[in-house]
Amino acid sequence: MAPYYIELSEKYPSLMFLTVDVDELTDFSTQLDVKATPTFFFFKDGQQTDKLVGANKPELLKKITAIVDSQPHQQP
C-alpha cells in the first residue's frame, strides 16, 4: 500500500500526506484509536473529517478525489 500512497501524494500535491510509525508513536496511535494498519485519517483545518481502515485502494482514491473536488479552484 505504501507505493500507492506515495503515488497519490505525488499526484495530489495540494494535499498533505503524512505517515506515522504506530510502533514508535504508541501514545499518538492510541489517542487516534488506531486498531489496524493501514488506517488513513483525513483532516481539514485541524479537525478530523473522515477515516478509512484497511488497504482499500479504490476507497482511498474516492475519498481523496472527493476532497480535491471540494477544494476551491485557484486561478493561476
UniProtKB/TrEMBL annotation:
Thioredoxin domain segment(s): 1-64
InterPro entries reported for this sequence: Thioredoxin-like_sf, Thioredoxin_domain, Thioredoxin_H-type-like
Highest taxon of source: Eukaryota
Gene3D superfamilies: Glutaredoxin
PANTHER family: THIOREDOXIN, THIOREDOXIN H9
Protein name as annotated: Thioredoxin domain-containing protein
